[in-house]
Design goal:
Helix content is about 35%, strand content about 20%. By secondary structure, it is an alpha/beta fold. The C terminus is likely disordered.
C-alpha cells in the first residue's frame, strides 16, 4: 500500500491556484484539518464565501495535483470564512455585519425586490448568514415575497428582533403598520426609518446584509450611502431603453457618492415558453449588456421572465426556494454566486491596500 506523506501532499497542493483571488491553496492558508491514512487523504478547503462558484474547478485541480502521488482516496470538505469587502468597518450602526449589498434601480417595476429576495435566499442556501432590509419604506413588498407576517419583538437589550424565513433575517416597515395602510412620509422620515433599521435591529453576526432600495435617486439612497460602508451595489434593469435611461441616473448618483458598484443584472430578459422552450424578447434585446459595456461596469447576467417567479412572489416562496427551479431560479442562483465571488475579491483588495478594484 502506498503511504503518502504530509509534506508531499502540501507540495502538490501548492500547485493549485485559487482561480479568482490568485495564490496557491497552501500559501493562502486554505487547507485545514489535513488527515492522511496510508493512501487516503482528507482535508477541508476554507473558502472566502460558501457561495463560491468555482468549487468544482478547485476540486478538479486538487484531484489532478494529488493523483500522481498514488493517492487512492481524496475526500474534500468545504468550509468558509467570509471577510469584509469594505476597508471601513460599520462599527456604529451594524457592527456584526461583514458585507452590505445594496440592490438599486433607477426605475420602478424592473423587479428589483425580486432580485433582492432571491439574492438573499440563494446566499442563505449556500450556508451564509444573511439579512434582508426592506428600505422601500413607502412601497414595502419584501414580507409578501418571503411569506412573512407578524410583528417583531424586542430583545432584552431593547433591540428589534427581525423575523426570519427561508434562512433570511428580515425587517420591513410593513411589520409595523396595519395591512393596506399607506405610508405617506416626507424624505427625512424615510431616512430616519432606514437608520433605525440599521441601528436598532438585532442583526447579529451576518456575512451579508442585502438592502432593497426604493427606485430613483432620493433620500433613501443618500441615507444609506452616508450611514454605512456599502460593500457593493447590484443595479437592476430590464432591456428596454426607458429603464436603461433611469438606471444611468442611479449609476451616476452612486458614483458621485463613491458607492462601489458590483455590476448590473438584466431582469425580464426574455419570456421562456414553459411548453416549447422558445424565448421571446418582450422588452428588447441586450440592453443591460450594452449598458454595462458603455459604462465600464460588469454585466452580471440575464434573468428571464418566468411564471414561477410571479407565482412564488405572490405566495411567499421565492424562485430559488421552489422544489423545481425554473430558468429564472437557475439564473438567480448563479447571480448570487457571482455577487459573493465579487465580494470575496473586494475583501482581498481591502486587506491589500496597494491593489485596486474597479
Amino acid at each position: 500500500m502506498t503511504v503518502v506523506s504530509e509534506a508531499a501532499v502540501l507540495d502538490a497542493l501548492r500547485t493549485v491556484q485559487e482561480p479568482e483571488l490568485g495564490g496557491d491553496l497552501v500559501t493562502r492558508n486554505m487547507i485545514k484539518d489535513l488527515h492522511i491514512d496510508g493512501s487516503a487523504v482528507a482535508f477541508t478547503i476554507e473558502l472566502t464565501t460558501p457561495a463560491c462558484p468555482l468549487k468544482d474547478e478547485i476540486e478538479a485541480d486538487v484531484n489532478r495535483a494529488l493523483t500522481p502521488l498514488g493517492v487512492d482516496s481524496i475526500a474534500v470538505a468545504w468550509g468558509a470564512t467570509v471577510r469584509r469587502a469594505s476597508a471601513r468597518t460599520p462599527e456604529q450602526l451594524v457592527p456584526g455585519v461583514k458585507n452590505i449589498i445594496a440592490v438599486a434601480s433607477g426605475k420602478g417595476g424592473v423587479g428589483k425586490s425580486t432580485i433582492s429576495v432571491n439574492l438573499a435566499v440563494a446566499l442563505a442556501q449556500t450556508g451564509a448568514s444573511v439579512g434582508l432590509l426592506d428600505a422601500d419604506i413607502t412601497g414595502p413588498n419584501i414580507p409578501m415575497m418571503l411569506g412573512i407576517d407578524g410583528q417583531p419583538t424586542a430583545s432584552p437589550e431593547g433591540k428589534i428582533i427581525p423575523l426570519e424565513r427561508h434562512g433570511v433575517k428580515t425587517i420591513s416597515i410593513q411589520f409595523f403598520v396595519p395591512e393596506g395602510q399607506p405610508i405617506v412620509w416626507r424624505g427625512p422620515l424615510v431616512g430616519g426609518a432606514i437608520q433605525q433599521f440599521l441601528r436598532d435591529v438585532a442583526w447579529g453576526e451576518l456575512d451579508y446584509l442585502v438592502i432593497d432600495l426604493p427606485p430613483g435617486t432620493s433620500d433613501a439612497q443618500l441615507t444609506l450611502a452616508q450611514s454605512v460602508p456599502i460593500s457593493g451595489t447590484v443595479l437592476v434593469t430590464t432591456p428596454q431603453e426607458v429603464a436603461l435611461q433611469d438606471v444611468a441616473k442611479a449609476l451616476a448618483m452612486l458614483k458621485r457618492l463613491s458607492v462601489p458598484i458590483v455590476g448590473i443584472v438584466e431582469n425580464m430578459s426574455a419570456f421562456v415558453c414553459p411548453h416549447c422552450g422558445e424565448a421571446t424578447e418582450i422588452f428588447g434585446r441586450g440592453g443591460g449588456e450594452r449598458f454595462a459595456e458603455e459604462h465600464d461596469i460588469e454585466f452580471l447576467g440575464k434573468v428571464p421572465l418566468d411564471i414561477t417567479v410571479r407565482q412564488g412572489g405572490d405566495v411567499g416562496v421565492p424562485a430559488v426556494a421552489q422544489r423545481e427551479p425554473g430558468p429564472a431560479a437557475i439564473a438567480l442562483a448563479s447571480l448570487a454566486r457571482t455577487v459573493a465571488a465579487r465580494m470575496s475579491v473586494r475583501a482581498e483588495v481591502a486587506r491589500t491596500p496597494l491593489l485596486s478594484v474597479s
